[in-house]
Amino acid sequence: MPSPSHLSIHNLLKAAFYQNRFPAVILQLFAAGILCCYFLVPALTPLFEGIGQLKKEGGILFSVLSTACFGGLIPWIVLVYRGRIPPGKRLENLCFYLAFWSLQGFIVDRLYTYQTIWFGSEPTLRVLLSKMLVDQIPYNLLWATPNCVFFFAWKNASYDWRKLNGAELKRKYVTVQVSAWIVWVPAVTMVYALPPNLQVPLFNLVLCFYSLVLVFVSRD
Question: What is the structure's pLDDT at 9?
Fold first, then answer.
C-alpha cells in the first residue's frame, strides 16, 4: 500500500472522506441532539440559560478557557489514559494543546461575535448560510486549516522548523481541509442556529466530542 506521501490528490480526498465518514455522522447526530434539546425540551431551558449567562459574563475569557479545556485538556487526558502519549512527552503535549486551543478559542470568539454584527442573530436560512460560508471558506481556508496543519506538524517534528517538508504540508492541508468540510459544514450551521451566547459552548462540545471519537477510531 502506498504511503500518504505518494498518494495522488484524488486518493487523498477519498482517504479523507473514508476516514471521517463515521466520526462525521456521529458528530452531526450529537450536534443535532443538542439543538433539538434546546428547541424541543423546555425542562432544559434553565440549563441552556445558565450556560449562556456564564458566556455572557465571562466574555472572551470564557471562550479561551473553555476551548482550551474541551479542545486540549480533555482529549489530552484521554490520550494519556489510552497510552497514546509517551510519559516523557505528556507535559510538553499538554502545554502545546492548551496554548494552541486557547488561541483558537480567542479567534473563534471574535469570528462568532463579528458574524453576529455582520449578519444578525436570527436563525434564518440567509443568516445561517452566510455565516456557514464565511466560516468554512475564508476562515477555514486561510486560517483554521493552515494554522492547524502547520503547528501540529511543527509539534510532530519536535519543534524543529528545519524538519518541516513543504510538499508534505500541502498534502496534509488538502486532507485536513476536506475532512473539516465533511465534519464541520453541517455542524457549524447548527452552531449558528443557537443564540450568540450559546454558540461557543456548542462549538466546544462538538470539538471535544469529535476529538474523542477520533481518539477511538484512528491510530494516527
Answer: 59
